[in-house]
């Protein structure tokens, strides 16, 4: 699409925020000033030393600037910024004792409450829901016969309806009468309405629902998913939360589309709330078996226009389709070819309305984020189609849109203007493209913000690298905060008692011109005349980021630097393919996951070992989880000898085993890239047999994301190829999912990892290992 108008060249107005917080923050993480060292039990399983933050729900009722938060007693507190008045909105005793989440209606007369929570997948859960009348204090069950089986509920913008999902069917509840109307009736194990199935939840929407009320609450757009024909993966649960194991394990038959297999089919529906009737929107952008719907958004103040974003199966082509909800007439308004890599599903569409820009007619627009310039930036797109207006530009990326203020004609956003590891907050004018920072963007930092419903106020959150804090501002006066929300003074005091690891950030520049962001962590009381063991801790997945200048929690990573018997230096390196360095950088891994990333980790390790005399070159390890576990395995596979041990946790081992929507986005289809799939699986065992300090493989048997199949196949390969027991340790965590937490596993796994690092620190280099006699006889016989 031609871009013949741009605001990106508009003047950048410098307006910095006065640093009113005491003590002033520094552009580095604190190292303390005391003598205490972090202990294991302070970091695992929970983090005893951590920053506090306040999360608020901005009220749409009354004057702008009212927000609701929860206090230490569990009460919901309503605060008015302008008047300074604070009142207890709902006392904790009015809510169920096991309250999980609360949502307040726009008019603040009702609170929707979930309780009796049962986790399902990463985001979804089952619960009971209740409606609290704020004035009377009466608590009413959403459904009289609910038994912890409601999958999702939401209050309509008008406040008079609640939409909810039960048994994979959509329902509407009328607030005035309490009447419940069932909208769909065919929901079941293979048919989902208004909620995603497993793969769409995990890889596309990252949320519990696929339901969107129109701004005037007269219509609901919702997606339906049909899993008929999707292959089933069976997960056994050996304990199933019981103290005594059942004789036969419980089994979960999960519809899980793997590479090259059938995906769920998706349909878009539009419901007329008053009549309770819905219609299916014909989707012709791609054939059903080649279709992924990535985003649905209303682009109207009422209910007159809806956009959905359709991808092809491998998500390198997309089309934005405009739909008239009353006639169902559809129109292609945007399309893009991204076959040089993939197209990210940014979920950033936000309606702006009619604006008079310097270079356009009085047309209606919406805001979206696109990397069509090679970098993620904000664009204005005409609702009815036409040329876009680029609002931001440069070799840096917009990380998130925080708020679209249509009244003032502003978009607030965070961006990596000065470095990929940083975030600063800006606003850009929809009318003339003028960009203004809301913080001092010349100071290295990581910021975010939460804006009031009317856009007049915001809570500015400093998130690092020093101790986080939050302040309240008016958008028309950003030079001085109205007050401090959270200063984390207690944390500052606690930190002063400790001698903490020293965390710094820098870039490594590869001879071929690529830059890698690096986080270095040195032990307390570091002495450059000594030799230190090293642990690399990558994730490394496509468009991900591990190295960011946010405040680093005092977790296990910092413990292993602090323990006098370990004193590990850690490095985290963001390799090629990771995010916030532009489209060309992240697209390098297209079709070849696991090929460049380990090469980069090895080069970084060799380069640092050569440059830094205090690195013990015989004790350099690598540890990763999930994609990081895959990277730890692939790095060992092509190891040049620089890495002496590898800790491989919940890894992918073969991309054919992973879900289609994620894998084919980056690897394309198995039919088009069979050689790529065979090459990028973990398959060469030579270095596993010879790695000096051995390696470990850890996985949860109940992992619904990266199935235990990955570890099982990897272990079978290694055993079959003759890897010896002195080199390999393996641990399977019964019934644990991807996070490995079931029945104390979160504590055990970090004890296990710590023990392996301790073994490595104490391993004698060039010493002849003790070999059991049967092993000697076996070797002699061979």
Total domains, how many? 2
| DSSP summary: helix tally | 13
Estimate the helix proportion, in percent. Answer: 10-25%
Main sheet characteristics: 8 strands, mixed
Average pLDDT reading: 93
Spatial strand arrangement across the major sheet: 37-38-40-39-41-42-43-44
Structural class: alpha+beta
Strand % is 25-35%
CATH fold assignment of the largest domain = Methanol Dehydrogenase, Chain A
Low-confidence stretches: 1-19
What is the first-to-last residue Cα distance?
67 Å
Task: Supply the CATH superfamily name of the largest domain.
Answer: Dipeptidylpeptidase IV, N-terminal domain
Describe the structure.
The chain has an eight-stranded mixed β-sheet, with helices on both faces. The protein has 782 residues and is of the alpha+beta class. Helix 6 (596-611) crosses helix 7. It is built from 13 helices and 44 strands. The protein is 15% helix and 32% strand. The chain is globular, with a radius of gyration of 27 Å. A hairpin with a 6-residue loop joins strand 23 (317-323) and strand 24 (330-337). InterPro entries: AB_hydrolase_fold, Peptidase_S9_cat, Peptidase_S9B_N, Serine_Prot_S9B/DPPIV.
What does this entry show, briefly?
The chain has 782 residues and is α+β, with helices and mostly antiparallel strands. An 8-stranded mixed β-sheet has the order 37-38-40-39-41-42-43-44, with helices on both faces.
